[in-house]
């Protein structure tokens, strides 16, 4: 169950491509919604996925797929006690309308994308492992109490704070909060999480003490945010292997020194950041057209352009096995070792320049600063 959704919604490499979601949005609160109840006959026609029931001795239909029917009441589904999986996407269901499903004795998966749900705090469903409430009207994540929940998808909602009651989500492995209203990584997180997708928010800072304690986190997707600094990581994050920072605002290589505390980081994606010498997103990507895994030719050999961030990042983080689209080969490692002193000197010079600029800015007259701000 742990691989449901996040991987299916993205490209082949975890967390790298833009997620694919249906563009249809939930109806607005001001829209007039007509009452429409799912009937027994209609629900019967929505049954599918024949398999063994909860006893393991009989066959039954295990899934109901009642999507895009403008439903406001699905209480009749309680008549189908053998159902394990429900897909109710694209209806007009509210949080209250979903609450009746708590009485489903063996429900494992509940998918209710594109509805009018304003809270994920449904009553406890003791077997629920996957909860998908993408594209609803949820604003917070408080009071979610699902003890066996493995995957929680809350993409494309209005969530502005992450304050989970972690004791109620002890089994959670995958958390998706893409395209919400998060301005920082703060609050509390279940420490059991292995994959976390936070792309498409406005995150500019990481302040959560819980985040730094996430010892089981393996994949972190922070694409399309506003990060300029990389504070908040710690040596406790021993399993973090994949970090996607594409399309943020990191403008100095020295920030990546803060990732040296991550002992097992293998893949780092930084395309689209304003790092010195980086290629634009429109330019041909480094390594394209080269032999897979070779990372492109060395300078002067012709062929695809070498990614200019490779050597600086590899000097700072020598354990990396992949940077952007380039798999790190022994040839690239040797080159990084040869250039290590030059890179470190350049980083030190950049750091001194930044410090000097900061001192100059601090000592500037207040009136001059105000005039410059007004001019901009």
Radius of gyration, taken over Cα atoms and rounded to an integer in Å: 25 Å
Helix coverage percent? 10-25%
The strands making up the biggest β-sheet line up spatially as: 1-2-3-4-5-6-7-9-11-12-13-14-15
The fraction of residues assigned to DSSP E strands is 5-15%
Order of helices and strands: HEEEHEEEEEEEEEEHEEHHH
Summary?
The chain has 376 residues and is an alpha/beta fold. 16% of the residues lie in helices and 13% in strands. It is elongated, with a radius of gyration of 25 Å.
Ordered list of secondary-structure elements with their pairings:
Blueprint: H1 40-45, E1 47-52, E2 59-65, E3 85-87, H2 95-99, E4 109-111, E5 130-132, E6 151-153, E7 174-176, E8 184-185, E9 195-197, E10 205-206, E11 219-221, E12 242-244, E13 267-269, H3 310-316, E14 322-323, E15 326-327, H4 330-338, H5 340-363, H6 366-375
Parallel strand pairs: 2-3, 3-4, 4-5, 5-6, 6-7, 7-9, 8-10, 9-11, 11-12, 12-13, 13-14
Antiparallel strand pairs: 1-2, 14-15
Structural account:
- With 376 residues, this protein is of the alpha/beta class.
- 16% of the residues lie in helices and 13% in strands.
- The chain contains six helices and 15 strands.
- It has helices spanning 40-45, 95-99, 310-316, 330-338, 340-363, 366-375; strands at 47-52, 59-65, 85-87, 109-111, 130-132, 151-153, 174-176, 184-185, 195-197, 205-206, 219-221, 242-244, 267-269, 322-323, 326-327.
- Strands 1-2-3-4-5-6-7-9-11-12-13-14-15 form a 13-stranded mixed β-sheet. A two-stranded parallel sheet has the order 8-10.
- β14 and β15 form a beta hairpin.
- The radius of gyration is 25 Å and the shape is elongated.
């Amino acid at each position: 169950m742990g691989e449901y959704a996040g991987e299916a919604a993205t490209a082949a490499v975890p967390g790298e491509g833009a997620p694919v979601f249906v563009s249809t949005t939930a109806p607005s609160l001001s829209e007039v919604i007509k009452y429409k109840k799912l009937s027994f006959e209609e629900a019967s026609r929505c049954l599918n996925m024949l398999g063994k029931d909860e006893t393991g001795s009989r066959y039954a239909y295990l899934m109901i797929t009642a999507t895009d029917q403008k439903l406001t009441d699905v209480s009749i589904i309680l008549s189908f006690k053998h159902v394990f999986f429900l897909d109710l996407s694209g209806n007009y269901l509210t949080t209250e309308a979903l609450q009746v499903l708590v009485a489903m004795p063996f429900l494992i998966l509940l998918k209710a994308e594109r509805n009018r749900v304003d809270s994920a705090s449904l009553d406890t469903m003791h077997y629920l492992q996957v909860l998908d409430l993408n594209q609803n009207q949820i604003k917070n994540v408080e009071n979610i109490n699902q003890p066996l929940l493995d995957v929680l998808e809350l993409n494309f909602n209005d969530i502005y704070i992450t304050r989970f009651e972690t004791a109620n989500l002890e089994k959670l492995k995958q958390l998706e909060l893409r395209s919400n209203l998060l301005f920082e990584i703060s609050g509390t997180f279940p420490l059991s999480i292995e994959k976390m997708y936070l792309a498409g928010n406005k995150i500019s800072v990481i302040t959560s003490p819980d985040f730094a304690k996430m010892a089981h986190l393996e994949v972190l997707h922070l694409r399309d945010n506003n990060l300029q600094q990389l504070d908040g990581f710690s040596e406790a994050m021993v399993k973090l292997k994949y970090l996607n920072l594409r399309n943020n605002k990191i403008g100095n290589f020295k920030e990546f020194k803060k990732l040296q505390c991550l002992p097992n980081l293998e893949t780092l994606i930084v395309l689209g950041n304003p790092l010195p010498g980086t290629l634009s997103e429109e330019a041909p990507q480094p390594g394209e057209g080269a032999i897979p895994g070779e990372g492109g030719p060395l300078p002067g050999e012709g062929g695809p352009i070498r990614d200019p961030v490779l050597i600086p990042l590899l000097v700072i983080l020598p354990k990396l096995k992949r940077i952007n689209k380039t798999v790190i080969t022994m040839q690239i490692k040797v080159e990084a070792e040869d250039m290590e002193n030059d890179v470190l000197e350049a980083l030190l010079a950049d750091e001194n320049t930044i410090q000097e600029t900061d001192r100059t800015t601090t000592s500037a007259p207040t009136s001059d600063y105000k005039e410059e701000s007004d001019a901009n």
